[in-house]
Write a structure and sequence with these properties.
Layout lengths: L15 H12 L4 H5 L5 E4 L16 E13 L6 E7 L4 E6 L3 H8 L4 E6 L1 E4 L2 E5 L2 E4 L10 E4 L4 H5 L4 H15 L9 H6 L5 H9 L4 H33 L11 H9 L6 H14 L6 E6 L5 H14 L3 E5 L3 H17 L4 E4 L5 H12 L5 E4 L13 E7 L6 H8 L7 E6 L5 H7 L4 E5 L9 E7 L3 H13 L3 E6 L6 H18 L5 E4 L5 H12 L5 E5 L11 E6 L7 H8 L9 E7 L5 H12 L3 H21 L16 H17 L9 H21 L1
Helix pairs in contact: 7-8, 8-22, 9-11, 10-11, 12-18
Bound molecules: adenosine-5'-diphosphate and magnesium ion.
The site of magnesium ion has 5 residues, from helix 11.
Length: 699
């Protein structure tokens, strides 16, 4: 027999196959467990009443009692609507219905007094309420009191009356049946020392609290539990690697490293770069396999760090590879690092998906006999065919496109496994980094190279296009280069392509006789590389591109980044694009061009970008605006299951607490064998089972 909580949702009384199907499709509620974990996203305090005068914001809900003065059906073009003029005795509020008029009309005539509940809308300076909840006060009306849970539902479900209220009824029913089945998932000593609700209380109270404290406390308990299990998982992985893999020891810094450092280093390293190199050197000589994340904002100089570390491997008779997410970026790294390598006799090659077969074969041959020291490339590097003589170090640039699974493929490339360094410019909010990359040790470059001038960021509309083009002309005359970037969003790729080509035509007309590079996703990668290289060498002056240049390219002479339709880019994307300029010592500019009509979020993004260049601040804002689901989704999925209740933007303190506890648990009892940890062990096994189930649901 299946465990109780894995029972198909159809079998809950009142649901059945049809409604069950809808719940599965719309809310991903497949089992009893899913329903019981469909937590309220908000609660209505129905014991409080407002006056109409209290209404100040479209964001809040208000509950008002009063009478209806007039009822009108208004028919001014468009759809007819029902307008009720409602008063609390002092002020007036229009209640408006666009649908269900037939049904609501008699309801509004059925009583003297009403309780109105809803969110106001602001129209031409006046608040009104559209489709509020309305309760006629009759002698037998049950007046709502206390805190009412509000559950996510969808339009489709609501049409079938599967709204928040119905869900709440089902959950109540399920809770009655589940009483005996709910198992404790945290050890007693943690519940005691952190004064947490036990599991049963938490689950009951999260759905049906009677006061604010119960809401807060049940949330705290469930968040703590959720984050603790995420941390146990990622930290467990980390410990496992450390236990299982010993690492190659790289102690020599001669001859390559020292020769380059003393004679050819193009600039003084920043203190942050030195610190990070030091940390990594400790790892490389420790005898343990390194798994480290290197975070550094765009332009902080990660490439030089990568190169110096690869030299450490080379000086110890090992090979190193550097893997980039795109061909363009791989090419760029190759182009830069070949220049350095040649000076000190280091043999470096490039391998990507578009490397011709013959060349590829040659590279594979050379690699396997150790005639190549450093290999730069895309994920073509981790193909089975590619084998190294002795791969000692692998660096992954721009981490967010490589998942844990790919990383572990690398570990298998050599015996003992190579050291792995993951570099990212995506400023990952600290809380998120801890959760996503808890299995990696972390280094941060928190300092920009000296002499950088701040990038001047502005937001402009179409009307300024001429002025902007004139300004670009001026910069070009001063010998600088310029990027013009168009959005490329997959759903409307054809349309985006059209915008780009039209844009190119416009630029060509305006900047007659000026060499222009054009790079977009439809180009063959050889052509892309060619266009890129023209720009990198300064032979073309303007680079018109879709956001393929989002990551990595490095042309210090470029001083203007013009972003077209900027409102269509996300915050971190904009920040990354901006980071393409301001790399040299000249003053640089990022100009975000947008349509006149911006959504609230669009405008907010422009404001954030113009007000700060701090990548971490921007990442936190991004997390706040989009929610962690979105952010993690685009960065990497699979490390943690979806968080059901925790909000990484807000729960940093609980997360830190949970991490500390997870560390202690794993330290004292790495295999979770102690009797007090039996419940944890069982829960982890149950979660693993659930995950396999989830996978089968997706496909
Ligand atoms: P990112 O961290 O975004 O990959 P890069 O490694 O591409 O940054 O470096 C950005 C620019 O800064 C490059 O032109 C690089 O040569 C330069 N740079 C890196 N470190 C220093 C330094 N310590 N002093 C001066 N310029 C530096
Ligand atoms: Mg880079």
């Amino acid at each position: 027999m299946l465990p109780f909580f894995q029972t198909n949702i159809e079998y809950l009384k009142g649901i059945g196959p049809k409604r069950g199907e809808m719940l599965k499709k719309e809310l991903h509620i497949f089992t009893f467990a899913d329903l019981i974990q469909h937590y309220p996203f908000r609660y209505q305090d129905r014991s409080q009443y407002n006056k109409i005068r209290d209404i100040v914001s479209e964001e809040n809900y208000y509950q008002i009692s009063g009478t209806i003065l007039r009822l009108d059906t208004v028919n001014t073009g468009g759809k007819p609507r029902l307008v009720a003029t409602f008063t609390d005795g002092k002020d007036y509020l229009e209640l408006i219905w666009f649908a269900g008029i037939k049904w609501i009309f008699p309801k509004l005539q059925s009583a003297e007094k009403f309780i109105v509940y809803g969110k106001p809308s602001l129209f031409k300076g006046d608040f009104s309420m559209i489709h509020p909840e309305i309760l006629p006060l009759l002698s037998d009306t049950k007046i709502p009191t206390g805190w009412e849970p509000v559950y996510h539902s969808t339009e489709k479900l609501k049409e079938k009356y599967l709204d928040s209220k119905t869900l709440s009824r089902y959950i109540k029913l399920l809770l009655e049946q589940a009483e005996k089945e709910l198992q404790e998932t945290l050890p007693e000593y943690l519940i005691k020392s952190y004064r947490l609700y036990d599991k049963k209380t938490a689950i009951k109270k999260i759905h049906f609290p009677i006061n604010k404290t119960e809401i807060d406390e049940s949330r705290r308990r469930l968040k703590f539990e959720e984050l603790l299990y995420v941390q146990l998982k990622v930290l467990g992985e980390n410990l496992k690697n450390k236990r299982e893999y010993s690492g190659q020891v790289f102690k020599n810094l001669k001859p390559r490293f020292m020769e380059f450092y003393d004679k050819h280093r193009p600039f003084e390293l920043t203190n942050a770069q030195k610190k990070v190199i030091h940390e990594i050197r400790e790892d490389l000589s420790s005898g343990k396999q390194m798994n480290r994340l290197l975070q550094g904002d765009v332009g902080s100089g990660k490439t030089m760090v990568a190169f110096l570390i690869m030299l450490m491997a080379v000086d110890n008779n090992a090979q190193a590879c550097l893997m980039a997410p795109t061909e363009t970026l791989a090419f760029q790294h190759f182009y830069t690092l070949r220049y350095y390598s040649e000076k000190i006799g280091v043999r470096i090659h490039l391998l990507t998906g578009s490397t011709p077969k013959k060349t590829k074969q040659k590279i594979v041959d050379l690699l396997s006999v150790g005639e190549i020291d450093i290999l730069i490339g895309t994920h073509a590097l981790i193909e089975d065919k590619v084998s190294f003589k002795n791969l000692g170090l692998c660096i992954i640039d721009e981490q967010h496109r490589f998942g844990v699974a790919q990383r572990s493929l690398l570990w298998k490339k050599n015996n003992p496994p190579p050291h792995v360094l993951v570099m990212t410019a995506t400023p990952i909010p600290r809380t998120l980094a801890m959760t996503l990359y808890g299995d990696l040790d972390c280094s941060v470059i928190n300092e920009m190279p000296k002499g950088r001038k701040p990038i001047i960021t502005s937001h402009r509309h179409e009307t300024s296009r001429n002025a902007i083009y004139n300004f670009i002309h001026e910069e070009l005359r001063n010998g600088h280069q310029c990027y013009i970037v168009y959005p490329l969003i997959e759903e409307s790729e054809t349309l985006d392509y059209k915008h780009l080509t039209e844009g190119v035509e416009m630029v060509k007309v305006y900047f007659k006789n000026i060499p222009i590079s054009v790079v977009h996703g439809r180009l063959k990668s050889q052509e892309k590389d060619f266009q890129m290289s023209l720009f990198v060498k300064g032979e073309s002056k303007i680079m018109v591109a879709t956001n393929v240049i989002e990551v990595g390219v490095d042309v210090p002479n470029a001083t203007i980044m013009l972003i077209e339709s900027a409102e269509r880019f996300g915050l971190t994307q904009l920040h990354q694009l901006r980071g393409r300029v301001g790399r040299g010592s000249s003053k640089s500019y990022c100009i975000m061009l947008s349509g006149n009509k911006l959504s609230k979020e669009g405008r907010e993004r422009m404001e954030i970008l113009t007000s700060t260049t701090d990548g971490f601040k921007i990442a936190d804002e991004d997390l706040r605006m989009r929610g962690p689901g979105d952010v993690t989704g685009t960065m990497q999925s699979g490390t943690m299951g979806d968080l059901l209740i925790s909000d990484l933007a807000q729960d940093a303190i609980i997360l830190q607490e949970a991490r500390k506890v997870a560390q202690q648990i794993l330290q004292n009892d790495p295999k979770l064998e102690l009797p007090e940890h039996a419940c944890i062990r069982q829960q982890i096994i149950a979660q693993k089972k659930m995950n396999t189930m989830n996978w089968s649901r997706i496909s």
